[in-house]
Amino acid sequence: MKRKTVTLCMIARDEEANIGGAIKSVLALVDEIIVADTGSSDNTAIIAEGYGARVIDVPWEDDFASARNRTLDMASGDWVLVLDADEFLQSIRPVEFQRLLHDPGAAAYRVRVTDGTGSLLGGAGCRVRLFRNHPLLRFTYPVRENLEIGLGAYGRATGHRVLDSNLVVVNEGDTPHRLLAARERDQRILRLVRETDPNEPYFAYLAGCNGLNLLDDDVLPTAGVRKALADLGQAWQLARKGQDRPATAPAWLPDLGCKLLGAHLAVGDTGAARSLGADLLDLYPHHCGVILQAVAADLARLAAISGARGSLEFRQASARIESWLDRIDELTPQPDTGDRESRRRTLYPLRYRGELALLEGKVSEAVVMFEQALDLDPAYSFAWLGMAECCRYAGDRKRALKHYLHTVAQCPDNHRAWLWGSRLMQEMDCPGNALTWWNRFCLQFPEHPAAGADHLPNLLESTPA
Prior knowledge:
Elements: E1 6-12, H1 19-24, E2 32-37, H2 44-50, E3 54-57, H3 64-74, E4 79-82, E5 87-89, H4 94-101, E6 106-114, E7 127-132, H5 148-158, E8 161-171, H6 176-196, H7 201-210, E9 214-215, E10 218-219, H8 225-240, H9 253-266, H10 270-283, H11 288-304, H12 312-330, H13 339-359, H14 363-376, H15 381-393, H16 397-410, H17 415-427, H18 431-444
Parallel strand pairs: 1-2, 1-4, 2-3, 6-8
Antiparallel strand pairs: 4-7, 5-8, 6-7, 9-10
Helix pairs in contact: 6-7, 7-8, 8-9, 9-10, 9-11, 10-11, 11-12, 11-13, 12-13, 13-14, 13-15, 14-15, 15-16, 16-17, 17-18
């Protein structure tokens, strides 16, 4: 079996502290190293050359795709491996690495990109970092650059596919200072590219994502969520224009749809969320994240009509939610899809089954669901919140308050705990504490539909949303 050659391609700037470790991690696997230096003022180039790299000077023009493609244009290997200078590839035997490269049906491989603790960066799935050296495979988009368009064209031309792998890339550069600098840089580039190409949905999608704060998959009603909602809505309209087949849709479309639905829920627009959920399920009936977001939208509607449990609408929505959650149980498990997808398949459905049971008045059943969720993750704030609601429903206010306190202590971003906890304190005739929690809620989550009142409203008449 003839050995396949590999070119390591990197872009770097002022990375003298990291680039040596990145290159050393793959020296036994690659045959060529090309580094695009985008303007270093330190010893980055000297260190890279010391490890045998060919360093090219590439003027920085606010375009990551262009810089990366300069290295690809010079690559001579059969395959290309892409690393950032603050990353390293976890050890793998060269024979196992070569086995990946000899798969005749592989166009590229996804790898897990984690932080130092092993958690997927940003909760994202696996990313393409190893791919065949071919002129069609070039990066697009100046920011959050990716190979999606090229891989689609290459796959249609050759029949090759993008496959999963057991490769793990560890990123050790996500310090608070570097993250802040990267965020500010990306936002600046994003503003520029949106001005020059306002009809590109990917840029509106990225802008919307940058304006969101998430707790698990829930969008939080923090300051800026309505602006993010507008960006995501624009991205959805642009991406769906003339697009009726998931097979030709961008890979990020289901994530866009889920975040847009979540943003609608965050600002209280349940109708729009449910409508979008139906559209998403038509497109992606077996996508775990899509199913869960559709469930969340219908649960919000059930909460609004919880006083009419015997109504046809309530019973139909309840049955629909059950069938969707059963669909998740029937999905074929994917190999090593990361912590986020694992939680979607195991933990989150327990939360939603518990919430559904509680809305149906089945408190004991709800408690069982929330306890099972806490067995999987003792810090899961939505399970603690569910336990608090079960206690309140059963009339045990003191235990409910204890669980609310535990929830906000574990997770200060759980806005429902602050809102519902203030309601409970009002029920318990503790107006001072209720007002303190209410003010904290309004300050931290100003775009929630309940926030913004000059004083504590009569929460006894409000319905959880």
